[in-house]
Amino acid sequence: MCKNKKDNELRPEPYEILDINPQTEKEYVFKVKCNKDARPGQFFQISLPKIGEAPISVSGIGDDYLEFTIRKVGKLTNETFDLEAGDDLFLRGPYGNYFPLEKFEGNDVVVVAGGTGVCAVNSLLEHLYDNFADMGEVYFLTGFRNQESILYEDALRKYENRFTDTVYTLDNEKIEGFKTGFVTECIDQVPFDSLEDYHVVIVGPPPMMDAAFNNCAAQNVKEENIWVSLERKMSCGIGKCGHCKIGDKYVCVDGPVFNYSEVKNLID
Questions:
Q1: What pTM, to 2 d.p., does this model score?
Q2: Which of these, 16, 145, 168, 245, could form a disulfide with 33 (CB 3.0-4.6 Å)?
Q3: Is the pLDDT confidence value at 6 over 60?
């Protein structure tokens, strides 16, 4: 029996844009009316007919909406930035696995994000914020290149007022509320020696992640306590095209969330 077209997991469907919130000159948050069951860490393929398609992490999850933070970097995203509230954005998904929330519950969590890597963890941060009473200690460290590239300023203030500790950095600028330098240089401010059952989430550009791994090792953080999100050349979303394959892993199916101990030796 043939499936109904609407049951085809590879068929994009239109969803109404409820709101568009510019974050920077190149990054906008698109709030889309959608009640699909997405989890922090998963992604959707976002498309426009006859224009193209791209994988975008879920950056916000509500009862009847999803949020995607899109960076203006090419043909599809340029066209997306011309859309307005009330227009349709085409989605298929969700795809991939998600952060192990059941392992995080009741334990301490440290989130380290660099640049646009914060987009892939913002829905996780929202979950930690909403369920803070059920968590242990929560530490959030994030860094941006400069003042013009800061994302989620309202959320940063919100997290600052609830989480155990927050550290925000700018690479080469100094403004109120931000330290100057790389976020990875602040990992030693997390009191790992006083934490018992904890998990560390690291997401960002590869050089930032490598530095974060090294600094965590210097703090004797166990590799199996570290979780990463690897968003690499994902295309089909179901492990068929092979664009995202690293070693024996298909990032879109086996990830994008991995335990660091699984992928530390993969050669990309």
A1: 0.93
A2: 16
A3: no
